[in-house]
Amino acid sequence: MENINPEFENDGMLLLQLQQGNRSAFNVLFNKYWEQTYSNAYKRLGDSEQSKDIVQEIFASIWINRQNPINNLPAYLSISVRNQVFKLAAKNKNLTPFFDFLDNIPAHNENADSNILWQEFYSSYEALLLKLPPKRQQIFRLRFHDDVPTKTIASQMQISRKTVQNQLGKAIEQLRITLLP
């Protein structure tokens, strides 16, 4: 195995060495970013095994396609996680339970007026969000619009995680009742 010179342990040099097939450079990058990538996948999926599988696929792909240059590895990993989660969501629609109700909205006409219907739906959705109590609205937007974990929301708002979860449950139920036909 090739040795990595400690003074070259920055991402740019490691990525260049990776392109040349240096397994040690790959191992350093893997060890450096595995946990962060796993955490990113886990916060989106909430499933440890699926998260590990996604991370493994991403790093395997990096090794297989090592000749393709990567300029910003953290950004590349983040986008890869997002894309893998989207692929998994397409296979298993149970990953995003809040938005399942969108699948149940009947599609009477999928033609020229579908864009207008979507805009009307989104306007109704925003109007309903604005009717939520301010704190509940803030919690909902942080969780579902900004993808902030409930633990972080609780810490930021100085409330318990259970309170955050209860407020999310109440917001989701209120939106489901109102938005379902």
From TrEMBL:
<keyword id="KW-0804">Transcription</keyword>
<dbReference type="InterPro" id="IPR014284">
    <property type="entry name" value="RNA_pol_sigma-70_dom"/>
</dbReference>
<dbReference type="GO" id="GO:0003677">
    <property type="term" value="F:DNA binding"/>
</dbReference>
<protein>
    <submittedName>
        <fullName>RNA polymerase sigma-70 factor, ECF subfamily</fullName>
    </submittedName>
</protein>
<dbReference type="InterPro" id="IPR013249">
    <property type="entry name" value="RNA_pol_sigma70_r4_t2"/>
</dbReference>
<comment type="similarity">
    <text>Belongs to the sigma-70 factor family. ECF subfamily.</text>
</comment>
<dbReference type="GO" id="GO:0006352">
    <property type="term" value="P:DNA-templated transcription initiation"/>
</dbReference>
<feature type="domain" description="RNA polymerase sigma factor 70 region 4 type 2">
    <location>
        <begin position="125"/>
        <end position="175"/>
    </location>
</feature>
<dbReference type="InterPro" id="IPR013325">
    <property type="entry name" value="RNA_pol_sigma_r2"/>
</dbReference>
<dbReference type="GO" id="GO:0016987">
    <property type="term" value="F:sigma factor activity"/>
</dbReference>
<dbReference type="Pfam" id="PF04542">
    <property type="entry name" value="Sigma70_r2"/>
</dbReference>
<keyword id="KW-0731">Sigma factor</keyword>
<dbReference type="InterPro" id="IPR036388">
    <property type="entry name" value="WH-like_DNA-bd_sf"/>
</dbReference>
<dbReference type="InterPro" id="IPR007627">
    <property type="entry name" value="RNA_pol_sigma70_r2"/>
</dbReference>
<dbReference type="Pfam" id="PF08281">
    <property type="entry name" value="Sigma70_r4_2"/>
</dbReference>
<dbReference type="InterPro" id="IPR013324">
    <property type="entry name" value="RNA_pol_sigma_r3/r4-like"/>
</dbReference>
<dbReference type="InterPro" id="IPR039425">
    <property type="entry name" value="RNA_pol_sigma-70-like"/>
</dbReference>
<keyword id="KW-0805">Transcription regulation</keyword>
<feature type="domain" description="RNA polymerase sigma-70 region 2">
    <location>
        <begin position="29"/>
        <end position="92"/>
    </location>
</feature>
